[in-house]
Design brief:
The chain has 138 residues and is of the alpha+beta class. The chain is built from 5 helices and 4 strands, in the order E-E-E-E-H-H-H-H-H.
Length: 138
């Protein structure tokens, strides 16, 4: 990933390069790449990619549901990368689902206990007692 160091800070696309601002890392640039979206949607060789994408989407939605439920508590305590860390942990929960086939696994049939000890702020270490107490009451 390239960093922009000049006076002019760009955002958007130019040619095959995307310019954007990251809260943590400042202004960055990256080259557009990857496989055509239609090919990913239809090519049998990308079946695993579609399965992974479906599960990742479920993980993101589950993380958002949890964040929404806890919004009043998280507003002043979550760090800027909490969302991505929570999504990563939700993916692990989904991958622990032994009931459904790959691509159709979900949080409900996964192992929600894997979220015990999740830190909403890595800088402040809030402790896991809050989530453990919420989880054990349901």
């Amino acid at each position: 990933m390239a960093r922009q160091k000049g006076i002019i800070k760009l955002q958007g696309q130019m040619g095959g390069v995307s310019f954007y601002k990251s809260q943590q890392d400042g202004f960055l640039a990256r080259e557009k790449g990857g496989v055509d979206a239609e090919r990913i949607k239809n090519d049998p060789n990308f079946e695993r990619t579609r399965e992974n994408g479906a599960e990742f989407g479920r993980a993101g939605a589950a993380g958002k549901l949890l964040r929404t439920a806890l919004r009043a508590l998280l507003i002043n305590i979550a760090d800027s990368r909490m969302t991505s860390r929570l999504t990563r942990e939700m993916v692990k929960v989904i991958q622990a689902d032994a009931t459904n086939v790959r691509g159709q696994r979900n949080v409900i049939d996964g192992e929600a206990e894997l979220l015990n000890g999740f830190e909403f702020n890595l800088d402040g270490k809030l402790g896991s007692t809050f989530f453990c107490s919420v989880h054990s009451n349901h």
